[in-house]
Amino acid sequence: MAELDPQVEAYLHDLSAEGIPPLYTLGVSEARETYRRLCVVDGATETGVETTDRRVPGPAGPIPIRTYDPSDAVGPVVAFFHGGGWMLGGLDTHDALCRALGAAAESVVVAVDYRRAPEHRFPAPLADCYAATEWIDAEVADDGLVLVGDSAGGNLAAGVSLLAARRGGPTVDRQVLAYPVTNHAFDTNSYTENAQGYFLTRKDMERFWNAYLRSDADGRHPHASPLRTETPSAFPPTTVLTCGFDPLRDEGRAYADRLDAAGVPTTHRSYDDVIHGFLTMLDDPDLDRARDAIDDIAADVRQ
């Protein structure tokens, strides 16, 4: 087993020293604010990336989006869905990541601020992501469309890909899923090995799933658990990123393996020395491994 990256190890030590409470112990509002404080990068910008905030039509009202437009943008547009257990996160928590990805990929990135659980349970967040993707495809994506999401956002990206295949559009050229949630289950080795101590915990995931689903039956639906789809060949070419010290590691690997076995062009990138959520760690700490992974994702976007 790989050793934990020294920068990550120092970050976890700092979190412990600061007495940051586990997210699963906090109320919804307090958990959101705590996650925001951990993720938002004050004053960090990428030179040459302009942003525009607007709203686009959604199934239950306008959906906020933020467009990142590098001065040298070419190629496909990225529709980005943020992580946070369907309950936390938003445009600001993933702003630095989207800026860095747009600059590295030289692509327009459109981040989607979907409705969150528990106020809006499955399938509401997915419905927003699909509607926003339809708008992005029609209005922005003249040279192709790539879906990118981290954690719960990776789950939503996979759900949008499946909906697009079943509904005949929009055409998704590739999906890039970073440490995605792919299955409503807690029986993998990685859930045992990484149950606690590495930022995201098993109890966090249990809380997130409970907030997201209306019932256990929802958890068996492939739009919530894409690993369970009966038609894995419906997914577009796919990149899956997994982390060694992550409860979700094994379900991400299983999803990549299932798509590969079904004939879907699939790339599995394993970052064995880092933790769940490392892509948003771009300032205090500014993880070298996060910058490396963003460059890898950018290369996949440009394929």
Protein model, in words:
- This protein is of the alpha/beta class and 303 residues long.
- The protein has a single domain (6-301), classed as Alpha/Beta hydrolase fold, catalytic domain (Rossmann fold, 3-Layer(aba) Sandwich), CATH 3.40.50.
- It has ten helices and eight strands.
- The chain has an eight-stranded mixed sheet with strand order 1-2-4-3-5-6-7-8, sandwiched between helices.
- Helix 3 (95-105) crosses helix 10 (288-301).
- The longest helix is centred in the middle third of the chain and has 16 residues, at 124-139.
- The chain is globular and about 50 Å long.
- The model has no long low-confidence stretch (mean pLDDT 97).
- Mean pLDDT equals 97
Question: Considering the protein shown, what is the CATH homologous superfamily?
Answer: Alpha/Beta hydrolase fold, catalytic domain
Please state the overall shape, judged from the principal axes of the Cα atoms: globular
Q: Using DSSP, what is the number of strands?
A: 8
Low confidence ranges: none
If you consult CATH, what is the topology?
Rossmann fold
Summing up helix and strand content along with how strands pair, one would put the structural category as alpha/beta
Give, in order, the helices and strands: HHEEEHEHEHEHHHEHEH
Q: Biggest β-sheet: count, sense, barrel?
A: 8 strands, mixed
In angstroms, what separates the terminal alpha carbons? Answer: 31 Å
Under the CATH scheme, which architecture would be assigned? Answer: 3-Layer(aba) Sandwich
Total domain units: 1
> Helicity level, as a percent range?
25-40%
Strand order of the largest sheet: 1-2-4-3-5-6-7-8
Name the beta content range: 15-25%
| Helix count, DSSP H or I runs of 4 or more residues | 10
Q: What would CATH call the class?
A: Alpha Beta
Rg from alpha-carbon coordinates: 17 Å
